[in-house]
Design goal:
This is Phosphotriesterase. The chain contains nine helices and 13 strands. It is of the alpha/beta class. The chain has a six-stranded parallel β-sheet, with helices on both faces. Strands 3-6-7 form a three-stranded parallel β-sheet. Strands 1-2 form a two-stranded antiparallel sheet. Helix 1 crosses helix 2.
């Protein structure tokens, strides 16, 4: 498999022995008029580092895919500091979130210029840091069909992915719209195994999950622990249905920590909820150790490296 770009340099997937958090935020700012809590910044550096270091020591956490992109308060220099301090590798992202968070002017910029912007991030680094993204994410839309500006930003994500070899992870708002996202991305020539459809654990529709997986895309159960949106019991049932349908090789898992109140330091479930609560529940339901390793390590590594899971790899 190809090396994975992290904020501290290239990473050989074969050296990653522990689990991966496939969709997280370590530094972001989603504050708008109605939501002052949706921020992780310098005030939260120490608690974030403590959590990551503890998960590395306790559960072997090896890599975090940090999906904060343009318009979300991205700070890749902070990611490099967090990664170095915690000794956990971190992948940074580029792209555009869903339309309410599009920076001014994106809605009137043509796809070619949007694509060039993302390609420049990949080839030259983000915001003058020299730090390159390792994934195009979280490329967003809301509703069953993307809005016109979202069609353009998703098309740019797909074209940039084709040009750079990176994969695309999406934000399907509340789990809705994954099939339309996949159709749009693959229409630009992006293979489905280089697409991960986000927040599918918020959509209680196993048939959609099976369809996306059967078409070759990754299905992200990435809001584990966010019981205000969906119960973990429902998430567990949906994931078990996907596994039983033969698609364990298309599932990804994460917690999508996106507010400082989710940190364990503030009484939240934290980045480790997946390891402390959800994976034990999967084991209790009869999922074996090899399948858990597939979902938490081999799948996200293959996704990031752009490797087709149908091809045998030495992992």
């Amino acid at each position: 498999m190809h090396h994975i770009r992290t904020v501290t340099g290239p990473l050989d997937p074969s050296t990653v022995t522990g689990p991966v958090l496939a969709h997280e935020h370590l530094a972001l700012d989603l504050r708008r008029d109605s939501d002052d809590e949706a921020v992780l910044d310098a005030r939260h550096t120490d608690p974030v580092v403590r959590e990551l270091a503890d998960l590395r020591e306790t559960f072997g956490l090896s890599l975090v895919v940090e999906q904060t992109c343009r318009g979300m308060g991205r700070d890749v220099a902070a990611l490099a500091r967090l990664s170095t301090a915690s000794q956990v590798a971190v992948v940074a992202a580029t792209g555009w979130y869903y339309e309410p968070f599009h920076p001014h002017g994106v809605g009137t910029t043509d796809v070619g210029r949007l694509t060039d912007t993302l390609v420049r991030d990949v080839h030259e680094g983000i915001d003058g840091t020299g730090i390159a993204p390792g994934v195009i994410a979280e490329a967003g839309s809301h509703g069953e069909r993307p809005s016109e500006p979202e069609r353009r930003t998703l098309t740019a994500a797909a074209r940039a992915a084709v040009r750079t070899g990176l994969s695309v992870a999406t934000h399907a708002h509340l789990g809705v719209g994954g099939p339309a996202q996949l159709d749009l991305l693959t229409a630009e020539g992006l293979p489905p195994h280089r697409v991960a459809l986000g927040h599918q654990d918020l959509l209680d529709d196993p048939a959609v999950h099976r369809r996306l997986a059967a078409e070759g895309a990754y299905v992200s159960f990435d809001t584990v622990g966010k019981n205000g949106y969906q119960s973990d019991g429902t998430r567990l049932r949906l994931l078990l249905e996907l596994i039983e349908a033969g698609h364990a090789d298309r599932a990804l898992l994460s917690c999508d920590i996106s507010r400082h109140g989710y940190l364990t330091d503030e009484g939240g479930t934290g980045y480790g909820h997946l390891f402390r609560s959800f994976l034990p529940a999967l084991r209790e339901a009869g999922v074996d150790a090899d399948t858990l390793d597939l979902i938490t390590r081999r799948n996200p590594l293959r996704f990031l490296a752009g490797a087709d899971p149908r091809e045998r790899t030495d992992d």
